[in-house]
Design goal:
The protein is an alpha/beta fold and 445 residues long. 53% of the residues lie in helices and 8% in strands. The model is unreliable at 134-151 (pLDDT under 50).
């Protein structure tokens, strides 16, 4: 959340006048100057939708990417401009910084000196010093794995002890998962009559901490299926070709243990837009992912339910939303008041309790996610434990304990996520992919 009153006022003005390009660009520039990099990126993206060829906006977005270490993304948007003569010198300096971040010292030096020779005022002393200094460490380059290197995945098959009864609220989300993933396995004859196979993919998206991983585990538990939780460390490897083999091994594991829920967290890191990638081996990983989702034949993934979660669905390659892959996007919103009360009830059910008014706590925890509420309960329990140790006996947790903590803490991520989501919904939704977000965006404060 922004703690600068001036920026808050600018953002509010931009919200009421979303097509005012000078205002939106000024807001983006100010956010970048004051170090709000993610917010600046979102505003530059929105401005770029209004003026796609504006070199100044492109340069600002590239600088936001570079300062967040997203060097490939910065170079991807700069390359069309750098290919034309007479590009702005400031753009060349930002390109040099991104090239240096990727370890291309020679390319960075060329870009920097060419830009500064045309406009000495664009010079960046810190960058110039880094270019002049000898490199201390050469960034590791991907190398091909030896033929005998093992490629077994580190992901493991689990059995979830959670069901949908352990997930408070989210009734619409649970119903969508039942129809898409669970019922075809639970009632195969009925679905076979309509030519529907058991299997498929759903992409869960929403702000951090909203319960996407917990929901995936509950889906596996509801079905009594195996559960494979795939993290980035289970897939990504420094050797060319190994990441693709690890991904194939994960799918093979799921097929051997069907019915199985195969869950990919932070899937945007494995399924990013290929247009944003500059290296062929990273694009090949996306191609391998698409091939595994399709299967070698139409029954290859029958009984394999593929769930994925992301906080940034707009960065996922559009090919993943094709029918037969992640053809259903399911928004997992922050819990409403009733769901927050239910979550608090679940979190407190195994603790010594006085008479509790969960609705009262829910009313003052607007925009708290499930993770925020767990943190709230944990802090209240820690305070109560200190009292109990002093008293020499357990002192029950009470409503005032939760209310006291709730007044001190703030929700962690919803407001920032909301600002980014609003830009995509309002300015980058030509395909209608984010229509589901529209009512929530308009209703959120």
């Amino acid at each position: 959340m922004l703690d600068d009153a001036g920026l808050q006022a600018l953002r509010e003005a931009a919200r009421f006048s979303p097509d005012n390009l000078p205002l939106r660009r000024h807001l983006a520039d100010q956010l970048l100057t004051k170090g709000y990099l993610a917010e600046a990126e979102a505003e530059y993206r929105a401005a770029l939708m209004l003026a796609p060829q504006d070199p100044g906006i492109t340069t600002g977005l590239a600088e936001a990417f570079t300062r967040q270490s997203s060097y490939g993304a910065a170079l991807s948007i700069l390359e069309p401009h750098l290919a034309a003569p007479g590009y702005p010198p400031r753009m060349g300096v930002i390109a040099a910084s991104a090239l240096l971040g990727e370890g291309d010292m020679a390319g960075a030096g060329y870009r920097y000196h060419e830009a500064v020779s045309r406009d000495p005022s664009a010079a960046d002393p810190d960058l110039a010093a880094r270019l002049a200094a000898p490199p201390v460490v050469t960034p590791p380059q991907p190398v091909v794995a030896p033929p005998d290197l093992p490629h077994d995945t580190s992901a493991e098959v689990e059995r979830s002890r959670f069901t949908f009864a352990d997930v408070a609220g989210m009734d619409a989300v649970k119903e969508a998962l039942r129809i898409k993933l669970l019922l075809p396995l639970q009632q195969p004859e009925l679905f076979a009559a309509f030519g529907k196979r058991a299997g498929g993919g759903v992409l869960l998206y929403g702000p951090p901490g909203a319960g996407k991983t917990h929901l995936a585990r509950a889906a596996a538990g509801e079905l009594g299926a195996a559960f494979v939780n795939v993290g980035l460390a289970d897939i990504l490897d420094m050797y060319i070709g190994s990441s693709e083999r690890n991904l194939r091994a994960v799918f093979e594991m799921a097929r051997r243990n069907r019915p199985c829920v195969l869950f990919f967290d932070e899937v945007d890191a494995l399924a990013a837009r290929r247009s944003d990638m500059r290296q062929a081996h990273t694009r090949q990983l996306v191609n391998q992912f698409l091939a595994e989702l399709d299967g070698v034949d139409e029954s290859a993934n029958e009984g394999v339910l593929v769930l994925a979660a992301t906080n940034a669905p707009w960065y996922v390659d559009v090919a993943f939303r094709r029918p037969g892959r992640f053809d259903q996007l399911v928004f997992v919103p922050p819990p409403d008041a009733a769901a927050r009360a239910a979550i608090l009830r679940l979190l407190c059910r195994d603790k010594p309790l006085a008479e509790m008014d969960y609705d009262a706590v829910a009313r003052i925890t607007d925009q708290f996610t499930g993770a925020d509420l767990k943190g709230l309960v944990d802090r209240a329990v820690e305070a109560k434990l200190q009292q109990s140790i002093s008293a020499g006996r357990p002192i029950p947790l009470s409503t005032p304990d939760l209310l006291a903590v709730a007044r001190q803490v703030k929700p962690t991520a919803v407001r920032e996520w909301l600002a980014t989501a609003r830009n995509y919904v309002m300015h980058a939704n030509e395909s209608g992919a984010w229509d589901e977000l529209m009512p929530w965006i308009k209703g959120a404060r």
